[in-house]
Write a structure and sequence with these properties.
about 325 residues, 18 strands, about 25% strand, elongated, 8 helices, alpha/beta
């Protein structure tokens, strides 16, 4: 099967790698190189960088807008059986897609969590099951017909970053299953139930907060669900850091009556939450340093019980 691949982020790389082994990738389309890092050096997208190393003879189009007439004509000249679109970053127009079998991999069990940050939203909400959907492209975001789905059950202390990587690998199989079904003429289409639609908004650093007055499970879900980006930012005495991974605290080690956000057991990393509950900090990332276990963070520091974790909560819990 011949395919054209549209993608920019690492989420699509496992699928692209599988396509190069099992299909004929006629061309790859990605976003242009952009300034990155402190020196603002021009850098390719993860897909563009991967292609430079692994697909040196395959045409790679780095387009600011694939919907320009000249670019459309170029892309539509490829004799491909399918177009695969994964985290590309641009909307493909009707004229570009006309008479093309084009599919998209979205990291949620649609119609739940349409939008830019579906894994974050599912993890913060505490969804017990997450997954992928392979859909047709539609005018409205993520509203296409569902052609295939898969599921995954995250562990309580898994982060969004880890689930993202696992779903990206699972997604490669999802895409290949749909392509093979299309090749056999056995595609099954399901319309999404609009009454069950939820949306996952795009996140920014301003979303990196946690309210320790909430129940411990809500706090845990927010810390893990926003990790590694945008990350939950806190201040502890003179240290600014991000909370990377948290678990629930053993009941026998919780001390009731503690103010929310207070360190109640420095050695074990326990932080008081609402309703006399607590979470355990497992991994943190001090500003300018790598992620480390809580025990490593404590080394050489005197963090006393009663120290307060401060986070820029935008809205009071009872608002």
């Amino acid at each position: 099967m011949r395919v054209v691949f549209f993608g920019s982020s690492p989420f699509g790389l496992p699928t692209l790698e599988r396509l190069t082994r099992e299909c004929k990738v006629e061309a790859v389309v990605t976003q242009p190189d952009r300034p990155a890092g402190r020196k603002r050096k021009l850098s390719a997208t993860p897909v563009g960088a991967w292609c430079a190393e692994h697909l040196p003879s395959t045409p790679v189009h780095k387009e600011e807008s694939v919907n320009q007439e000249e670019i459309q004509r170029t892309l539509r000249r490829y004799d491909a059986d399918a177009w695969v679109v994964i985290a590309f970053g641009q909307k493909l127009s009707k004229t570009l897609l006309a008479n093309r079998f084009a599919i998209n991999l979205h990291a949620s069990i649609l119609p739940r969590w349409r939008g830019a940050a579906p894994i974050h939203a599912a993890m913060v909400a505490g969804d017990q099951i997450v997954g992928n959907s392979v859909i047709t492209l539609a005018e409205r975001m993520d509203a296409g017909l569902v052609l295939g789905q898969s599921t995954y059950q995250p562990a309580p202390d898994e982060t969004t970053g880890e689930v993202h990587d696992k779903l990206s690998v699972i997604g490669a199989e999802d895409i290949l299953n749909v392509l093979h079904a299309h090749e056999r003429g056995e595609i099954e289409e399901q319309t999404q139930d609009e009454s069950e639609v939820t949306y996952a908004k795009k996140l920014s650093p301003a979303d990196g907060w946690v309210d320790f007055r909430a129940d411990s499970d809500i706090v845990r879900r927010r810390i893990n669900g926003l990790s590694p980006k945008p990350g939950v930012s806190v201040e502890l005495e003179d240290v600014t850091m991000k909370l990377i991974r948290a678990g629930l605290a053993p009941i026998e080690r919780i001390r009731t009556g503690s103010k929310a956000g207070t360190i109640i057991d420095a050695e074990f990393g326990l932080v008081a939450c609402g309703n006399d509950e607590a979470v355990r900090l497992i991994e943190v990332q001090p500003a300018g340093k790598k992620t480390m276990e809580w025990s490593a963070f404590l080394a050489g520091r005197q963090i006393s019980e009663g120290a307060q974790l401060l986070s820029a909560v935008p809205v009071p819990l009872d608002a």
